[in-house]
Structures are given as structure tokens and as C-alpha cells.
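Duplicate of earlier report; Luciferase family oxidoreductase, group 1 input re-posted below.
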Amino acid sequence: MLPLMMSESAPLPLSVLELATVGTGQSTADALAATTGVAQAADRLGYTRIWVAEHHNTPAVASTSPPVLIAHLAAVTDRIRVGSGGVMLPNHAPLVVAEQFALLEALHPGRIDLGIGRAPGTDAHTAIALRRDPAALSADDFPQHLLDLLGLLGDRRVEGGLAEHFAATPAPTSAPEVVLLGSSGFSAQLAGALGLPFAFAHHFGGPNVQAAVELYRESFRPSPVLERPHTVVTANVLAADTEDEARRLALPGRLMRLAIRTNRLRPVPSLEEAQVDPERAAAEGMPSNAVVGDPVQVAAELRELAAATGADELMLSASTHGVGERVRSLELVAAAWGLAPAAAAAC
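Output:
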């Protein structure tokens, strides 16, 4: 079941987008151990879900195979929903994705999300290596592939396609929750037409969040999986005990985003490296919609974001070098927001 909207007794749900970032001096194993710690903290603190993303050929990101990482994270947590933010469907055959996530749902019923995107999650050369056919780089077939995926997962609205001949599992008893991801009107309109939840990638820094979520709501048609629109809005968020400390901790993430925008990919620099980085001024001068500050400031800005977008759920991504700082940010935001820790919620 999707979480309810904010009320006097229940704050708007918060979730976590975890990119399994690799910092200077860290190995892939270090990054994945850190992501495990973040997931366990989010589970304990009362966050609704944690998603991991598909990225390839990127030195700063260890999350190349969301289904594998999701299986691990779901196994070491108790109640939090675990999913993809997202699986890039053009990189994979719909039947492969359906089988992977049907299996995950069978292992962890009621806790698996399948966030689907249509971007490659990598550069063009790597996308060709993944797809093996340059003609497959187009996303023109994405709507049909999405329908095939839904049909394979048991959506009875889908007629024809792969589901006529194949099944993701022989006898499924439940299905993962499918969420369509996007940063444009195309995905918003498609999610609305199919009656799916929609997650807008506001953490990318684009200016189109209000227009996209409004288009989603206008396009929405109730479906067997969702009676009313449900919008998840992502945001770069980093909280610390003081505003100055938060801004210091946020600098490695700003340098990483500059590296992405200038196509000079690198691991996330350490705090010490960031302070003396020759591109520090350029990174700090780059426009940003990141929410950075002490817990009171961060909670206030998140409430403004929720009000401006009408979001039903906010998903937070913390970008810095150390896992301790990421976990501390989640703790501070959870306390300021009024999330109920897992033990208290179970009482």
C-alpha cells in the first residue's frame, strides 16, 4: 500500500535514494558496505523506502545492478521498502526485468519497488555495449516495453504482448510496486495515463518539477494499482548540526555534480581534497537546488518543496564523502521531520 499524505498526526513520508557512491580512497566493497549501513539506518529511523539506481562506467557510483543490490539490502533490513530508482528499461529485455523483480517480490513480499526509467544511465558507448545493437539506443519502444513488463508482472489491463506467452513466475501471489521515473513531461504523462505512481528526479537540478507533476495529475487515470495520483519528488539533502558544517560536508557532492556536468568523471573527493580543489569556486558557484543546512532549516525547505509541488512523498539523496555524515543527516532530518522510528511504529 502507498503511504498516506501528510496529516496532523502523520508527517509526509520521507524516503532515501542511495547511489552507493565511491569516494577517493574507497573501494567498491567500501561503497557497498556504506550503502548497507545507510539502508539499515533508514530502516531503523522510519523512512518509507530506499532505492538504488542503475549506473554504468562511472567511477563515483558502485550501483551497476540494482536487482543484486536490492536483494542484499532487503535481506539485511526488516520493514523498509527496497527498490530501484531506477532500472533503465531500454538496457534490458522486459522479461529479464520482470523475472528479476518477481523473484525479489517472492523473497520479500510487499517490500519491493520497481522504479523504471527510460534514460541509459551511462554514456552512449557504454549503452551500445549494454544493448549490443546501436539501433536499440532509441527510446521509441519504451512505452511498449513498459506495457510488456506490466503484463508479465500480472497487470490484467495489458492485452497481447509478451504476457500471452510468458510469465515472470509460474504462480505469482503478489507483484512489486511499479513506479515510473522521469525528469520531463513524457514520463509524467505516461505514468498518469497508466495509473502508476510517478517519481520526478528533482535532484537532477532541472526547473520542470511543478510543470511535470501537474501534467501527471492532469493525465492520471485510476487503475487497479492506484486510485489517485501519487507523486514522489527527489531532492539532494544534507543536514548537519550547524549550517556551516552542512555546507562544508556538501562540498564533495557539489564537486561530483560539476564533474558530471562537465563530463570529467571522478570519485567523490574527500573533505580535505574538496577544500583545496582547484574547481571549488566553480562548484560553489554552480546553480543548485540542494537543501543544505541545520535540521530546522532543512525541514523548513523540505516543507516548502512539498507545498510547491504537492508531493505525496519526498525522497532524499545525501551526497558527501563519508557514510557517517550521510547517516547523521538522515538521523537529523528524521528527528526534525517527526518520523516514527521503526520500534515505535511497530508498537
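The domain at 14-346 is CATH 3.20.20.30 (TIM Barrel).

Merging into the original ticket.
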